[in-house]
UniProtKB/TrEMBL annotation:
Keywords: Membrane, Mitochondrion, Mitochondrion inner membrane, Transmembrane, Transmembrane helix. It holds the Pfam family Coa3_cc. It is found in: Mitochondrion membrane. The chain crosses the membrane at residues 43-62. Residues 31-74 form the Cytochrome c oxidase assembly factor 3 mitochondrial coiled-coil domain. It comes from the Eukaryota. It is a single-pass membrane protein. Core component of the MITRAC (mitochondrial translation regulation assembly intermediate of cytochrome c oxidase complex) complex, that regulates cytochrome c oxidase assembly. MITRAC complexes regulate both translation of mitochondrial encoded components and assembly of nuclear-encoded components imported in mitochondrion. Required for efficient translation of MT-CO1 and mitochondrial respiratory chain complex IV assembly. This is Cytochrome c oxidase assembly factor 3. Component of 250-400 kDa complexes called cytochrome oxidase assembly intermediates or COA complexes. One of its GO terms (cellular component) is mitochondrial inner membrane. Belongs to the COA3 family. One of its GO terms (biological process) is mitochondrial respiratory chain complex IV assembly.
Amino acid sequence: MAEKGENVSAKRALTAAEKQVLRRRQELGNWKTNASRLRSRNLLTGLAIGAFVVGVFSYTIMSVKQEKIIEELDGEAKIHIFRGPRTGANS
């Protein structure tokens, strides 16, 4: 009869608090096993976002520089148009 009492106490239902503790231990174990994979994904995502930002920034700077160059060329072209053609006779 003593054996039946031991089996009943071993198979008794878990309380809500015990279930919660067991669930939290399982979640902690999952976080520990998946942490390195999650870290690498976060690193990859961060690098991708950083590369995108650097690309947009460099494209913007490049296009602004081209606009300045085009404006300078337009200015030089206007000067040459006003001066007229340069030939041996009027230089």
